[in-house]
């Protein structure tokens, strides 16, 4: 987790309703002898008691019935199943230790997974679900943003936006971000519709980088600790990050490598405590953020540095130094709002701590890029 979320960040009421309904069903099933509406809760709407969407929506009801058919026969075993799920609701504890997560019996896994996957993919979007929750996922996303500084930035990576809002539209009509399962739904069906298992993420983190990776198990199926990205956890790694660009030698530059003056970029967290460093390693593997940052800095170093420092082709070396000092005197106000802003600021912090000899090696690269940009502008303007 790059940035911690506000401790008051709300969970999604839609998923809370669906998860509560699952728990209600499992508890009611302990002593039940028939599958009927009494296995499902009721809610008040417009002064009337209504039965849960999980009963009134036929496809969802059929998924619950399939799980009912797979339940063990004895009350003791059914009670044990209910208690297994109920007592494992506090997801965050599994990220701070290496205890085993609850496992379903083999004959229950498939119907349980089928049910909770259906709740996530289909039931969550039903009108009756929104009615029962008195909210929607779209509304939750807007609340999520507002509580966190009205930022659209993905707090997992700091490189991409979650979504974009449009003018004159209600919360319900706005686009929303992807909602990532913190614990993958294929391996942990108990948590597929759990409100503590979702965080809005950018498309890159969710679909491209993480996919179906298991954050709590690494190579050789070894259990490990990881960042839990939601409250109550406030763990993060931004305060330890260091971005060090490494430049090509003069021989390489003279050999024609001016277009790519950065040979590599080192993204490290040198002062992180041991327990945080362990979680940073998992975050790095799962979301591949340092790799993404390194490539971005290699590709855009000169343009972004010159742009951030407001340099032009008339500036001298002393202007460059002064602008660098000015830019790093305090943290930018938009560091949790603007894409790449945090990582570029950390890069500038590293540069500001270097001596004049180091900076003099960089200055010709910036001058060249600035003159090249001016030449391109002249051609575009005058042909």
UniProtKB/TrEMBL annotation:
Superkingdom of origin:
Bacteria
Species of provenance: Vibrio kanaloae
Q: What is this protein called in UniProt?
A: HNH endonuclease
């Amino acid at each position: 987790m790059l940035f911690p979320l506000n401790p008051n960040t709300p969970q999604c009421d839609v998923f809370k309703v669906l998860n509560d309904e699952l728990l209600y069903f499992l508890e009611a099933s302990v002593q039940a002898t028939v599958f009927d509406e009494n296995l499902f809760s009721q809610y008040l709407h417009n002064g009337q008691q209504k039965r849960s969407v999980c009963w009134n929506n036929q496809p969802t009801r059929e998924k619950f019935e399939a799980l009912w058919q797979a339940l063990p026969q004895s009350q003791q075993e059914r009670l044990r199943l209910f208690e297994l799920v109920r007592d494992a609701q506090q997801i965050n504890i599994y990220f701070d230790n290496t205890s085993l997560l609850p496992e379903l019996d083999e004959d229950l896994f498939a119907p349980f997974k089928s049910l909770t996957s259906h709740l996530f993919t289909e039931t969550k979007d039903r009108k009756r679900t929104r009615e029962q929750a008195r909210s929607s996922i779209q509304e939750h996303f807007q609340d999520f943003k507002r509580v966190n500084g009205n930022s659209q930035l993905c707090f997992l990576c700091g490189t991409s936006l979650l979504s974009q809002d449009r003018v004159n539209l209600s919360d319900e009509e706005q686009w929303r971000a992807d909602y990532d399962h913190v614990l993958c739904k294929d391996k942990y069906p108990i948590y597929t519709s759990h409100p503590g298992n979702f965080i809005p993420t950018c498309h890159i983190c969710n679909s491209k980088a993480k996919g179906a990776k298991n954050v709590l198990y690494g190579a050789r199926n070894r259990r490990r600790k990881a960042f839990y990205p939601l409250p109550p956890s406030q763990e993060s790694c931004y305060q330890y990050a260091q971005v060090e660009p490494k430049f090509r030698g003069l021989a390489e530059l003279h050999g024609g490598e001016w277009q790519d003056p950065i040979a590599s970029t080192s993204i490290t967290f040198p002062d992180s405590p041991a327990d945080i460093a362990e979680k940073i390693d998992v975050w790095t593997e799962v979301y591949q953020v340092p790799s993404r940052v390194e490539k971005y800095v290699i590709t855009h170093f000169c343009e972004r540095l010159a742009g951030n420092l407001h340099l032009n082709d008339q500036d001298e070396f002393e202007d460059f130094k002064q602008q660098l000092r000015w830019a790093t005197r305090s943290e930018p106000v938009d560091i949790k709002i603007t894409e790449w802003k945090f990582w570029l600021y950390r890069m500038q912090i590293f540069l500001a701590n270097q001596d004049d000899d180091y900076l003099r090696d960089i200055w010709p690269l910036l001058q060249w890029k600035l003159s090249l940009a001016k030449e391109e502008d002249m051609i575009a303007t005058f042909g």
